[in-house]
Amino acid sequence: MKLFGTDGVRGKAGAFLDAMTTMKLAMAAGIYFRKHSTTNKILVGKDTRRSGYMIENALVSGLTAVGYDVIQIGPMPTPAVAYLTESMRCDAGIMISASHNPYDDNGIKFFDNHGDKLGTVCEAEIENIFYNEELLNNSLVTGKEIGASKRIDDVIGRYIVSIKSSFPKDLTLTGLRIVLDCANGAAYKVGPTILEELGAEVITINNTPNGYNINESCGALHPENVGKIVRDSRADIGIALDGDADRLVVIDEMGEVIHGDKLLGALCVYLKEEGTLKGEACVATVMSNKGLEDYLDSFDLSLKRTDVGDKHVLKTMKDDAINFGGEQSGHIIFGDVAKTGDGLASALQVLALVLRSGKKASQCLNAFDLYPQILTNLNVSSKPPLEEIEGLDALLEDVRAKGMRDLIRYSGTENKLRVLLEGKDNKLVENTMSELVGFFQSKL
To answer: Cα(200)–Cα(235) distance, rounded to whole angstroms?
Structure first.
């Protein structure tokens, strides 16, 4: 059974992710981190899911069983765990969350001592240890070597100060009315506090978690709720977070959602104008619209694409010395501010952009139009490598010569081929998609 997915270990709490599996995973992680240990401390945070109690205690048992001391900080956003892991000089950090998933799922994300998410190589090594029963048994400690745990409840202030310091000192949110949806998740305390301390009038919704209502018809997955309140209360802007607050959706003063690619484009140009953009580029994924790419090009900025997943975005940012990137889904990474996508830090940058522009959110965050896009899923009987399909290279060369962008890949779980096509001319996109569908139907 494979443990790690695209973002840590995630599954149904009490089933795939039960107490025994969690404790064993914690032991494996402790053994792995021990190789580079300097402080013998591991930080553990969580979101507001009821199952977080079970998983947290199982993690503490597993880590202390192999000799690690554990610092428990309770409900905190994922980016806060990343920041505090480095700030508090811990060997590693662990976040218990299934992000935007329903309450009955849960997950475990690991961070190294710098607050960076573990790469696939490191995850694979932990997984190998997990299945090595002899190594696990031989790593159990006794007596004075057994680790200890303690809960610290005042670290919330450190994170609040860190996020507030990223907001321009010459600006204030005084006079702004903001609707904030906390998704009944990890930011239910820190979110309103940060915005209010910077002077905003905050209308906070979904900030009463009960262990079961995280992401339930609220937050980043349901921004229409924020849109209605923005309109009814005549607010200036709306902010919707997900359960662990690493994702941001922005709603303008008209109650309309700002597309994630438009947000990336506006923020990237804003950073360039402020003189803080590094690398003259934005990193995004293969899912971002070509309209974003062409918009950035008009400012002599490039778009570098990665596979889907914020950890891939972050890796390219590091490799290419770029300090801005993200996914259209709302994971926005300001490399000089946060270690990973941070919904609250990103929200402050959006608010700074709006204030600097002197315009309404609907005007300054809708700087370009997205190109028409069509996604077609085709049932296939087999999945031969795309590069081996005769005639495909020539066909795609013609598609790209017409100024269109394509993304063609097999589903990882179904016998389907996913074909995405986009371009400026909607009719041309439709006709070309028909041609591609006919081609693949004849071949597959």
So the answer is: 11
